[in-house]
Amino acid sequence: MSQTRFPLPLRPEVEFDVKAPKELGDVAKPLSFFEKLAANGAVRHGVILIVVALIWEIYARYLDRPLSFPTFLDTLEALRDGFASGVIPARLSVTLQTLVIGYFIGLTIAAVLTTVAVTSRIGTDLLSTFTAMFNPLPAIALLPLALLWFGLGRPSLVFVIVHSVLWAVALNMHSGFLSVSETLRMAGRTFGLKGLRFVFGILIPAAFPAILAGLKIGWAFAWRTLIAAELVFGVSSGQGGLGWYIFEKRNTLDTASVFAGLLTVMAVGLIIEAVIFRLIEAKTVRRWGMQRG
After folding, report:
1. Which residue of 19, 51, 63, 149 has the smallest Cβ count within 10 Å?
2. How far apart are CA 293 and CA 281, in angstroms?
3. CB 243 within 8 A of CB 227
4. Which domains, and CATH codes, for the chain?
């Protein structure tokens, strides 16, 4: 049977000039100067710090007791003098050196324990038992034993830092590994990954948000434990750290310098959080789409 072919109709080309309705307004418009400032996280944090400083200054002037609560300007002057004389930088250097040593030793032990825990059942039992025993134990409570075992010096401080870092990081790492989906685990086994290759190739990338949270918690625990330990005895390597500086100024009733030391402690915390950990987040979990900005 023959098929009849019908020619397609030719339609004239027509161009229409489409305009947006006036009632819709602007689809997109550039941000104003104040909107750009409000969208900047550093500016928002800076405004918060300025407001806190103003409240501090007003309240201290109202209280008018410089021996117990100096003004913010007096504290800044003491901070400037401490840096100009080189005392605060020297003490801070001693403290940071001790912190870095203890922090990385704690991370190394936590990584080993967690790796053993995710690759064997006995390792899981060991980690759960040790964390249940030692995680509730305050690190500063071990300082008397550390003094007996290691003497008056940096090893005692490193010991309490390792304790404060180890269990918090190990718990977060292990929880992150346990939260990895079974699909990813099966994919790793399909490719023949076992042991350390399985841990580094599958578990660590998938659990990195929890690992990063553990690193932050471990850092915070280590920093405050170290300052508290230095407040107790504080001399390491023949020179006191930042905590010992605060204790010395307290004994001489130089309250402004005490607040200057405390400001230094908080400033280090802000810098570590805003620079180092933010950079790690930007290069890892945010870049991978695992965390919102």
Report:
1. 19
2. 9
3. yes
4. 67-283 (1.10.3720.10)
